[in-house]
Amino acid sequence: xxxxxxxxxxxxxxxxxxxxxxxxxxxxxxxxxxxxxxxxxxxxxxxxxxxxxxxxxxxxxxxxxxxxxxxxxxxxxxxxxxxxxxxxxxxxxxxxxxxxxxxxxxxxxxxxxxxxxxxxxxxxxxxxxxxxxxxxxxxxxxxxxxxxxxxxxxxxxxxxxxxxxxxxxxxxxxxxxxxxxxxxxxxxxxxxxxxxxxxxxxxxxxxxxxxxxxxxxxxxxxxxxxxxxxxxxxxxxxxxxxxxxxxxxxxxxxxxxxxxxxxxxxxxxxxxxxxxxxxxxxxxxxxxxxxxxxxxxxxxxxxxxxxxxxxxx
Length: 313
Known about the structure:
Layout: E1 8-15, H1 18-28, E2 32-39, E3 42-51, E4 60-65, E5 78-86, H2 91-100, E6 106-110, E7 113-119, E8 125-130, E9 152-159, H3 163-173, E10 177-181, E11 185-189, E12 197-201, E13 214-222, H4 225-237, E14 246-247, E15 251-257, E16 263-271, H5 296-302
Parallel strand pairs: 1-4, 5-8, 9-12, 13-16
Antiparallel strand pairs: 1-13, 2-3, 3-4, 5-9, 6-7, 7-8, 10-11, 11-12, 14-15, 15-16
């Protein structure tokens, strides 16, 4: 049987000021800050992880905040829109909540589903959709109850400079199934109950430019280290230039650039975010990779102080 990824593991993006990032994703969207650490390649920059109450694969969005970073441009070679799933019957509550924060909303339909589309403070394109899939997220914050809370990723829209090759990769090498298509998109589904619906935009547009307000990469799920090595060999045999396995503390990863210019990662479900913090304390302390522990005092001094705080009026 061909290799099959269960779906999205996480999505990572570049944003602006870290407190603005926390205020929006925790304070407005009600996601849990599950890990506060630093960029492996640039320890002077935070790497912040937001997700459900446990930081489950398929719910995690991660950020590299550059307070004075150059503005990027969303376009081909990127995840153009990140989709979140909310419980059935909660979309109108979300409309009211977003409007209470003066967030501009666009309502649209795709493949028979209604979406609320909006941008985060730094320009990332987001959308909410109601679906039955997966149990409710039990994390509650500032008036967002499990009956309303974001469950995790619905999926996303891929903007590709070569949509046909991107679509072929998803189906032929990654094991997703085409379930619908129209003049604008092809829709694919993976095995998981979250992070499982991918729409490939079939019209190519201007090339994206990496910077604040853009997605850096999308990560797909590998079960464990053995599965990850199988993916590495599978992708290599399929003609992709795949990196060596990288230890990211909370998962292990490989990376490759697909033919439409999007940076893909394969990431293991294990060990997860509870290896260095108790579940009740996730995201409460700055956690550093071992190679940067000797810089803790310096980094604590130089990194912007951030806090999760209520935003409701």
